[in-house]
């Protein structure tokens, strides 16, 4: 499986760093489309990605046009709070490129207008929020793509990690107990 995440002109280093860590965890390629709102040497970017940067297949494209020349249009699925179709309508394929706008401007209107059949939104039931954090949205979409593609590899890896924890004698996380009785008990 060869999923990709593309960020159009991301602005906030920790968001991009967290998405890079997500890509390392899922073996997903990351495309950064310039101009970026930070340097790739930014300390916050590196800190958020921790020591996983070497595990990420990162592509930096100098602009949207260069990205479009490198990636076939039929592979792109666009995600925006302004899109009308729900995430569950997306037709994920093993080589899909999950494209996100930046934190301040979101997905450019020209993309929403030109490719409405490829634009999707993450439904938000409460109606109290306009949009989600970029790293949160990328995580939701990527794991929905993996789920819908039936990622047997991810399930096998999770089972392997659970077995390792059990053999190492590490207790499973459980509910916390209060350190003292509540007053009035």
Q: How is this structure best summarized?
A:
This protein has 185 residues and is an alpha/beta fold.
What does it look like?
By secondary structure, this protein is α/β, with parallel strands linked by helices. The chain has one domain: SPOUT methyltransferase, trefoil knot domain (Alpha/beta knot, 3-Layer(aba) Sandwich), CATH 3.40.1280.10. About 35% of the residues lie in helices and about 15% in strands. The protein has helices at about 15-25, 45-50, 65-70, 110-115, 135-150, 150-165; strands at about 5-10, 30-35, 60, 75-80, 85, 95-100, 120. A seven-stranded parallel sheet has the order 3-2-1-6-4-7-5. Strand 2, helix 2 (about 45-50) and strand 3 (about 60) form a beta-alpha-beta unit. Helix 1 runs parallel beside helix 5. The protein starts with a strand and ends in an 18-residue tail after the last helix. The relative contact order is 0.17. Mean pLDDT is about 85; it is low at about 170-185.
